[in-house]
Design goal:
Elements: H1 2-28, H2 31-52, H3 60-89, H4 96-112, H5 123-149, H6 153-174, H7 186-216, H8 222-230
Helix pairs in contact: 1-2, 1-7, 2-3, 3-4, 3-5, 5-6, 6-7
Length: 231
C-alpha cells in the first residue's frame, strides 16, 4: 500500500508538471515556467523508473535524479519560478539571454551539488536550500497577496497553503527525517511528491487568474487573451 501511494503521488506530480508546463508555453508563451514545470515532471518520471527498477543508489538513474533535484531546489523552483511569476505581477518579460542564463545557472548548480549526493546531512547545501526556499516563500506571500487583492481569495489561500507545505517539505528533506520511515524514505517522498504536484497545479491556476485579471483591466494586451482562448 505504501509503495502504491508513492507511485500515485509521483504520477500526480508528473501529470501536473507536463500538463501545466505545456499550458504555460501554449497559452502564455511563458517558457521559464513551462520548461521548469516539464523539467520537474521529467525528474519525477526518472525517479519513478529508478524506483520500479529497484532503487539502486549506484544506478545512473540515481545520479540523474539527484541532478534534477538539485537543479530545481537550487534555482528552478526558486529564481526561475520568481522570474516566471513576475510576468503577471510586474509585467516582466526577460530576454532570451536571461532565460538561457537562468537555466544555465540551474545546470551549473545541479552539477556542482552532485558531489553532495546521498542521505547523509551536508549542512552547507542543506542550509542553502532552506535559505533560497525561504526567500522564494517571501515572494510567494506577495503573490498570494496579489491574488487576494483581485478577490481571488480561494486561490490566495490555496497558494499560501501550498507554499507553506512546500516549505515544510524543504525543512523535513534534510533536517527533520520522519520517524519510522524506511531506508528509501518512502513516506517522505510520498508527501513531497504530492506537495510538489499541488504546488505546480495551484501556481498555474493562480497565474491564470492574475493573467486574466490583467487582460480584463488592460494591463495585458488583448492578443494574449485571444491566444489563451485558442489554446
Amino acid at each position: 500500500m505504501k509503495d502504491l501511494l508513492f507511485m500515485l503521488a509521483d504520477l500526480w506530480m508528473i501529470f501536473a508538471g507536463f500538463f501545466c508546463g505545456w499550458k504555460f508555453i501554449r497559452r502564455y508563451g511563458n517558457y521559464l515556467l513551462g520548461l521548469e514545470w516539464m523539467i520537474v515532471a521529467t525528474s519525477g518520471s526518472n525517479f519513478l523508473v529508478w524506483s520500479l527498477l529497484g532503487g539502486d543508489p549506484d544506478s545512473v538513474l540515481y545520479d540523474i535524479a539527484y541532478f534534477f533535484d538539485a537543479f530545481s531546489r537550487s534555482v528552478g523552483i526558486t529564481l526561475i519560478l520568481v522570474m516566471g511569476l513576475m510576468r503577471v505581477t510586474h509585467r516582466y518579460k526577460p530576454t532570451l539571454a536571461a532565460d538561457i542564463g537562468a537555466f544555465a545557472l540551474a545546470i551549473v548548480a545541479g552539477l556542482y551539488l552532485q558531489q553532495f549526493r546521498g542521505h547523509e546531512l551536508h549542512v552547507g547545501p542543506a542550509t542553502y536550500y532552506v535559505v533560497v526556499n525561504a526567500l522564494t516563500t517571501l515572494f510567494l506571500a506577495y503573490f498570494s497577496g496579489r491574488l487576494w487583492k483581485i478577490r481571488a481569495r480561494g486561490l490566495a489561500v490555496a497558494t499560501a497553503l501550498a507554499t507553506a507545505a512546500g516549505t515544510a517539505i524543504a525543512l523535513i528533506y534534510d533536517f527533520f527525517p520522519i520517524p519510522g520511515d524506511d531506508e528509501y524514505r518512502t513516506i517522505h517522498y510520498t508527501l513531497a511528491l504530492t506537495t510538489w504536484g499541488v504546488q505546480l497545479f495551484v501556481y498555474f491556476v493562480a497565474y491564470r487568474a492574475l493573467h486574466n485579471h490583467n487582460v480584463a483591466t488592460g494591463a495585458e494586451p488583448a492578443s494574449n487573451e485571444r491566444t489563451a482562448a485558442r489554446a
